[in-house]
Amino acid sequence: MKQLGHTGKKVGERTVNKNELNPDASPLAAYGARLRRLREARGWTQVALSERMEFSAVHISSIENGRKFASLPFSRSADRAFGLVGTEDSFEREWRNIKFGGLLEGFPEYVKHEARAAEIRLYEIGIVPGLLQTPEYARALADSAVRRGAITPDKADERVSFLAERQAALERFRLPMMLVVMDESCIRRQVGGPEVMCAQLDRLVEFAELPNTVLQIAPYGIGERRTFDLPMNLLTMSDLSVIAYAESQLRGHVERETASVLPLLTAYHQLQAEALPQAASVAMINEVRKGTL
Length: 293
Prior knowledge:
Elements: H1 27-41, H2 46-53, H3 57-64, H4 72-82, H5 91-99, H6 107-114, E1 119-124, H7 135-147, H8 153-169, E2 177-183, H9 185-188, H10 194-208, E3 213-218, E4 232-236, E5 242-247, E6 252-255, H11 258-274, H12 278-292
Parallel strand pairs: 1-2, 2-3
Antiparallel strand pairs: 1-4, 4-5, 5-6
């Protein structure tokens, strides 16, 4: 005779204890509750789902009950089992939202390439590019988003930590060549107060002195000759392929198609030609820095 577990389910069927979850309690609870809801809607036991996913019923139970955080392979396997691959409701998408703290769609994918790029070209408007931000500058931006109600304090911590990981990933044996053009607004806009801003401007000057970097300011005076109206990231990989990443307020997009990327690379070269040379750019940064003291 098969024994019964606490829920009255047969242990022989390996249906593990079912706890009542509040999906609003945490992102992990919401993930687990949705996994359980979709499974039960199909009339599947945890064992039946495990056979479709190739993860054990015990593992599935731990995720449904919020005791474990699902991995990316688990999320992709769940998407295949439930027919959600590539959809807006995919478990992979939910996993990325939990893992990366609400980063824009496409950005986590871009970061994977960034860590392996031979050359990195950046253009930014309004704020200093993330890879050049000091921890205090990054924290000021994240805390501002919390005050506006755009993200939670936990998400702010994740953003700052994730940025530190991106910066650390570039400290490797073969340093990438980094070419950065910043709109003048990046150094004029006060972030975090005079002390934070002064340290950030010092960081930019130090960056310009590195052997693998070029830093240029695109002054307001270039007017309509500014070739980009949005931030732009361009990566040259070791095989000489180029990957572009651009974002709006709502989403980011990674582009690999040569026909689409090459015009962006041309526009970047044109922007560099219009921007101040590095020496003049550093002089402008130092002049702005005097006003923050």
